[in-house]
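Try it yourself: sequence plus iron/sulfur cluster, in.
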Amino acid sequence: MPEKPKIGFYWCGSCGGCEESVVDLALDLLVVVDAVDIVFFPVGMDFKREDVEALPDGAMAACFINGCIRTSEQEEMSALLRQKSQNLIAYGACATSGGIPGLANQFTKEQILRFVYETSPSTHNEAGVRPQVASQDAGHALTIPALRDRVRALDQVVDVDYYLPGCPPTPELLKNAVLALLNGQLPEKGSVLAPDVALCDQCRRKDTKPTELKYTEFIRPHLVKADPNTCFLAQGIVCMGPSTRSGCGALCIEGNMPCSGCFGATSRVRDQGAKMLSTLAASVTADNRDDAERILAGIPDPVGTFYRYSLPHSLLRGSTANLPKSTRNGGSRP
Amino acid sequence: MQDDTVIPVPRTEAVQAGVGGWEPKIVAFFCNWCTYTAADLAGVSRLRYAPNVRVIRVMCSGRVDPQFVLDAFAKGAVGVLIGGCHPGDCHYIEGNYKALRRVTFLHRLLESLGIEKERLRLEWISASEGDRVRTAVNEITETVRQLGPLDIRSRNAALDREVEARVHAHGEEAILHA
Ligand code: SF4
Ligand code: SF4
Ligand code: FES
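Structure, out:
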C-alpha cells in the first residue's frame, strides 16, 4: 500500500474552537483519518516537538495552523512546521488575519500586562509579580516564551500557502480542503479555500435586502428582538454580510444574529473594516455632519465592530499610537 | 507663507525649511468636475500654494473609498485632503453627501486608530474657486506640519524586527506581508 500523505494540526494563540471544528468532522473524521496519516496534533494525540523535528523537511503534505502569533514559541513552531510541510495552511480567522486576539493591537503590551497582572478587578497581586522570560525557582532555572509587542497573523511571520477562514472554519470546508489536497486539486498558491462572493449571496434573507438602504438609526442587536426573516441591515442592525466572504452557510443569520465578519473579506477588498464603514456610512440619511454624527453614534465601537477578526491584517494593523516612536525629527512640532 | 506672489518654480527653500529636512506629504483626492478644475485654475492663475500635496483626480468625491484614505496613511501620507462639489452640485447627485458621511465616520475610526482627525479634511470647492484650493492646501499643510510625522510604515517595520530575529535564528526565510 502506498504511503498515506502526512498531515499535521497545530495551535498557536487560539481558544481551542478550531481544534473543536476538526473533531466536528464527526463521521467524516473517519474518512479523513483513513486517507491521511496524522503526524502532529498536540490537542488530540500524543506527539512532541521532537517528533516534528525528526521529520525530514517537507515531510508533511499539509499542516493546518490555527491561532494568532504573539509569542516567541509560536514563531518558532510556525517556522519549524513551515520547514516540515509542503503546504502550510492558515486555519481559522486568527491564523488568517489575526482574529479576536488581534484586537489587542489597540493596546500596548505594557497596558495589557498592567491590566491583567495588576489592575483588573479580580486580580490580587500586591507584589506586582509579572511573568519573566527567565526565572529561578527552588534552584531551577525556568523559562517561558517571550510575549511580543504585537499580535500577528501567520503570514506576517512565515510564508503561507492557503487560508481557511472562519471562527472556526466549518467542518465542510476542512473536508473539502483535505479532499482537494488528496486529489491534487488545490488552487493557486495564496488562495482562500472558500467561495469568493459576499455572504449576502448565500443568505436566505437576501430577497428582503433593499437595493437602496437608508439608515435613520442603528440598533444594537441586544436591544431588539430581530425579525427572523428580514435582512438585518433593513432592520438597522449592523450585519457584516456585504463585506464578508461566504462559505459558512450563513450560520449566525440562521441563529438570528447578524454576521460579525469572521470569514474576512473577498479577494476584491483589501481592508474589510474600511469597506464596511464605507457601505454603511454611504447609506446614512444625513446631508450634514451633525446628523451623520448622530446616526453613526449608533455604532459606538467601529474598530471592534468592523475589524473584529482582521485588525492585524488591516491597512493600519492596529492603533498607530502604540508603535515605537518615529526616529524622524518631528516637523515644526514644538 | 506668502500669498499671491507669482512664483512659477517649486519653492525648494520651503522644502529645506522643515526641521531635519522633514516636509509633510499630503495626498489630495480632487473631484474631476470641481476641485480638480479649480486646482487647474489656481495653476493658470499662478496662485502659489504649499508644494506638499500629490493630487489624484477622481470622478467624484463619492469615489473616494475609505480604503484609499487608510492606504495613504499606511504608505506615508501625513494628511489627506478630499475636494468635492458643493452640496447640491455633485454630478452624480449624492456622491458628495456620501463623502461627507464617510469622512464623518472615518474621523472617529482614525482617532480610535491613533491618527488625529485633523489629518483628514473634506472641502467643497467649485471649479471657479482656485483661491479656495490654495487656502485648503495651505491650511492642511500647516495643520499636519504642527501635528508632525506619522511614519507608520517604518514604525511597523521597526516592530517587526522582533519577529525577523527569531525566525532567522531558525534558518528560515521569513516573508513578511503587510
Ligand atoms: S446584510 Fe446580513 S442579513 Fe442582510 S442579506 Fe446580507 S448577510 Fe443576510
Ligand atoms: S455569519 Fe459571519 S460571523 Fe457568522 S460564521 Fe458566517 S461569516 Fe462568521
Ligand atoms: S461630481 Fe464632484 S463631488 Fe460628485
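One thing you can check immediately is this: The first strand of chain A starts at residue 6 and ends at 11.
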